[in-house]
Amino acid sequence: MLSFPAAIQVFLCTQPCDIRRSFDGLWLMVEHIIRCNPFSGHLFVFCNRRSDRVKILYWARDGWAIWYKKAGGGHVSVPLQ
Question: What is the residue range of 47's domain?
Fold first, then answer.
């Protein structure tokens, strides 16, 4: 289980994403689709059309970071609490 400081927000992009996008393509989606400041330190979650791959983009003080997950045999399951 991941835990974050209370100030961190998680934004889910509801539009399917070409998961081949890298840092520049994803932060442009944050600006134009999610309409947030990509340098805010919040987490931005992107899924592909089949929902079997997820990328999480965030700004980590000195540069971009991406977490990436590919589901082994189906959909990525994210427990919501």
Answer: 10-70
